[in-house]
Amino acid sequence: xxxxxxxxxxxxxxxxxxxxxxxxxxxxxxxxxxxxxxxxxxxxxxxxxxxxxxxxxxxxxxxxxxxxxxxxxxxxxxxxxxxxxxxxxxxxxxxxxxxxxxxxxxxxxxxxxxxxxxxxxxxxxxxxxxxxxxxxxxxxxxxxxxxxxxxxxxxxxxxxxxxxxxxxxxxxxxxxxxxxxxxxxxxxxxxxxxxxxxxxxxxxxxxxxxxxxxxxxxxxxxxxxxxxxxxxxxxxxxxxxxxxxxxxxxxxxxxxxxxxxxxxxxxxxxxxxxxxxxxxxxxxxxxxxxxxxxxxxxxxxxxxxxxxxxxxxxxxxxxxxxxxxxxxxxxxxxxxxxxxxxxxxxxxxxxxxxxxxxxxxxxxxxxxxxxxxxxxxxxxxxxxxxxxxxxxxxxxxxxxxxxxxxxxxxxxxxxxxxxxxxxxxxxxxxxx
Amino acid sequence: xxxxxxxxxxxxxxxxxxxxxxxxxxxxxxxxxxxxxxxxxxxxxxxxxxxxxxxxxxxxxxxxxxxxxxxxxxxxxxxxxxxxxxxxxxxxxxxxxxxxxxxxxxxxxxxxxxxxxxxxxxxxxxxxxxxxxxxxxxxxxxxxxxxxxxxxxxxxxxxxxxxxxxxxxxxxxxxxxxxxxxxxxxxxxxxxxxxxxxxxxxxxxxxxxxxxxxxxxxxxxxxxxxxxxxxxxxxxxxxxxxxxxxxxxxxxxxxxxxxxxxxxxxxxxxxxxxxxxxxxxxxxxxxxxxxx
Lengths: 432, 292
Known about the structure:
The complex is a heterodimer of chains A (432) and B (292).
Chain A: H1 2-19, E1 29-34, H2 40-54, E2 57-62, H3 66-78, E3 85-86, H4 92-100, H5 108-121, H6 124-128, E4 131-132, E5 143-144, E6 147-159, H7 160-165, H8 177-190, E7 193-196, H9 203-227, H10 235-250, H11 262-270, E8 274-280, H12 283-290, E9 296-299, E10 312-322, H13 329-339, H14 342-352, E11 355-356, H15 367-374, E12 379-380, H16 391-405, H17 411-431
Parallel strand pairs in A: 1-2, 7-8, 10-12
Antiparallel strand pairs in A: 3-10, 4-5, 6-8, 6-9, 6-10, 6-11
Helix pairs in contact in A: 9-10, 10-17, 11-12, 16-17
Chain B: H1 2-34, E1 37-38, E2 47-48, H2 52-59, H3 62-94, H4 100-112, H5 115-126, H6 134-141, H7 158-183, H8 187-195, H9 200-228, H10 232-238, H11 249-259, H12 263-291
Antiparallel strand pairs in B: 1-2
Helix pairs in contact in B: 1-12, 3-7, 3-9, 4-7, 5-10, 7-9, 7-10, 9-12, 11-12
């Protein structure tokens, strides 16, 4: 009887406590999903600072590697379970798909409030990556849909010590393609390794090929090719493909570059085993971690033609988007505005060695990052062209260049193969 | 009364049927259904294209069939070199040799290692500029400098190198299964054969081989299923598809999903690949039944 009463009392007590009103916290918690392992500690520190300032908790959740993150975001989009703030890894068409599905908030009005105060602080090329212009080919209403948190440029770097060993001036990197090839001959003769890059993962080949396409035929002709108005068998494109053959023959490319992953390329350059590397500005942090004493400089890819300026890929390094279905979207936008403020951006640049998206935060960056930032004047990116090449064409182009480097195919053969796939994809598009 | 008994029996298997349906049948049907659509994997809208994706796979996608050929080549090497090696080592360890338990442990280390670790380790062993270049140094030391080259970056040797590393990693599984099979053969059969004057080779040919056929079929099916789906090792060894020379079906499916955002097409590729594997396994099974 006693036990029965005791159980009843405990049950009654729990019932009363369970039914009592919960203490509610009026401040929301903002959840952010990201993939940036190197930036996570800095994000966590900034989140704490923001909570101290506003009382709003920001929960940064890291999902790495980037492939796994990318899949997680897609799965969450399908289930409408996206966090308040997230980033998208992929091409502009993926970005457009997210917008079309109603997952991303148009933040133009926030950016343009107070005489575009927020927008004015950010690099315009970084914003352009997150912007859809009127009449864009993706069918998206014009506007800004993402906030850049840093910027990047993809350029070449060279080892100053190895330059001296080769009898070259360490403060004068090659400016023309011919000079570059001549250094290749010296590299070959000395037994050193030349250019290293993650060309086994292919997209960086596409990047360099596009740099030279802009240099040889200009932006208009490159875009006309993407639109299907100029064939890949055009002599200018064959010249672009031929550059890779020339690089291979001169010895300026490292051995095994076609199967090299970018991490290996970074290790080789950081360990002073390669004279050149083709890499993004994120490499500054990587090299610092691998070899703090590395003496190197950044340079534009040496120009192959004087007709048009060389262009490099650059713009927003990483961007965050606000979930249009989030109940905390206003708070999320406020947080991103704070995160891209001058002081926070300077802190991020200092801690992570990435270029800040805020123009006013450049003052405190190291010299090598400043060299990368000067490349922004030459920066372009497929995400701001307004048209996208078919992914199967890009794949054929990348594979074709790999075949040229290993001496399996000629530039003409590759051009013809790429054009066949281009025509097939264009026919499919027309049929739709 | 009879119906009640039947229903009772079905009730007992209902949980298993439910679990099998939820985790196997429904996903398979769903993936097949997605293969009939053009879908980017993000939008809620999907466009029905019927069998167009399958038609493209069978009649237009040369890189898909190249990847199937590459995977078949690796599988062929695994079926022959890897399994013969596994069988011979298992046969040796089944006999009364010194330190056989030590060998059993050693042979089973590669299969328990992660494919990424194995790939990175072999990349370091093989590669010259970002590795120890051990293979080429050995060849030079043995007076064969003409054979020295980039094993992973040469289209003539990349796939074979990948296949051999895969065999190194995978032979331990075959070794264990073969060893277990060999230990089930009654020793009396060998003793009776010896009393009848049979040589070691005759015992091996007339007793070991026939009694091991079911085990060999099992190992062969597992080898085909495991090897055809290889891809992590390739990514860690050569970075990816290397101008198509090391392309395999799983990498093509991933390229369709991630690179091209063609989820519907990737599902159709997955279904096609699955059906090919089922067909191969079925043929192997029927062949072994016929032999028995």
